[in-house]
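Dear Dr. H.,

I hope your travels went smoothly. While you were away I took the liberty of generating a structure for the chain from your last submission, since the lab meeting agenda had it listed for discussion. I wanted you to have the full record in hand beforehand rather than looking at slides cold. The sequence, exactly as received, is reproduced here:
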Amino acid sequence: MSGNLISTRNVSVEWGDCDPADIVFYPNFFRWFDASTAHHFTAAGLSKNELRTRLNVVGFPMRTTRADFHAPAAYGEVVTIETEFVRFGRSSFDVEHRLKRGDTLCVEGFETRVLVQRDETGKLVPYAMPDNIKALFRTGG
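The corresponding predicted structure, in token form, is as follows:
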């Protein structure tokens, strides 16, 4: 085990998620991964509203993203997305997503994101994530 918190969420593949071959159109995986990152914060006890009010964080924009596609997901299936924060920098963090259909790994998603606040001029600036917040994403503290 990695020692990191892993959150899961199920997604029902709808007709509108698919291309004419009835498999998920690839941008939808990125949409689901984005939602899974927000869900992961909530699973650790930090909803987006709490990030805003408690830490004055306005978001976690994408710095880098990519995906490795292993097997298709199709209309009518229910897939499970496992999300894990695997590295923390000063204000950045790396996210890994594993989208599965049963025991079959369909897609691995990778993101680097940065927590940001607005400075006194309104400009977005990195937010240095405190250790107690990073600890929320590790099992066993």
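Two observations you may find useful: Helices lie at 27-43, 48-55, 131-134. The CA atoms of residues 65 and 111 lie 4 Å apart.

With kind regards,
E. W.
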